Amino acid sequence: MTAHYDLPQQISDLLDENKRTTDNLSELIRPGGYMPPNADLLIDAISALSMGKNILLKGPTGAGKTKFAETLSSLFHQPMYSVNCSVDLDAESLIGFKTLAYEGEKQVIEFVPGPVMNSMANGTFLYIDEINMAKPETLPLINGVLDYRRTITNPFTNEIVTANKGFGVIAAINEGYVGTVPLNEALKNRFVVIDVPYIEGEQLKSLIKSNTRLQDERMIDLFVSLSADLVQAAFQGKLSEDAASIRAILDACDLSSIIPPQRAVQRAIAAKLDEEREQEFIMSLAETLF
């Protein structure tokens, strides 16, 4: 395989089936990093990035997509510029903007680069969060950045910019949420899709231990059970996916190191939901468990 990056030795070993072990997988992930439910998820993402392909992390809210992107950035020893998409995202938010500056006493117009231009110039990762929240007419600005050309014509300076070695794109998407729009085929075809499921079982237990103040084994096991129940209820349509957010579970675990667990669940999970029926369902689960 021809690498797009000068890969750290540990990553090279992970991509080599003859050298791959459970130990070198677990050693790669720093405490607090994203530990995938299975090794293939990490290997596939690393493989795609190492060949210069863009990856699209697709999964429910709170599943750990941003943490996954941060972990990949760390593994590649690559800084990462971020874009948080919304309906207000425009060319200036992506590319940069012009402003007045001074050279001595002379007033000049200066271009201030945005995250796309900065990541291209520095040869680093670009993370585009909630990419399907952006207006459909905005993202085609960077189509050339996302394909084999790795170039863009700066609309503010007319300069043609080519990305330096090491540049790569990681995007994340939550499907079916209010305010999102389907990605057009031209954009979607520029990505390799990595499905990111909820973390469960031993992986979640390890994550709680490393990312929260809660260290009581019995209590951690109960929160792991609660998370499994919430994921199952969301899958069955009894709850919105927001209710099963791993981020919310971690918040509840943190709080429960100080306040009673049922109150922690109420503050961190149930109270975030709009429907009273869903809140009552969650608190009923919490009451049964705790």
Automatic annotation (TrEMBL):
One of its GO terms (molecular function) is ATP hydrolysis activity. It comes from the Bacteria. Pfam families: AAA_5. Transmembrane segments: none annotated. Signal peptide: none annotated. Residues 51-200 form the AAA+ ATPase domain. Belongs to the CbbQ/NirQ/NorQ/GpvN family. This is MoxR family ATPase. It comes from Oceanobacillus jordanicus. The lineage of its organism: Bacteria, Bacillati, Bacillota, Bacilli, Bacillales.
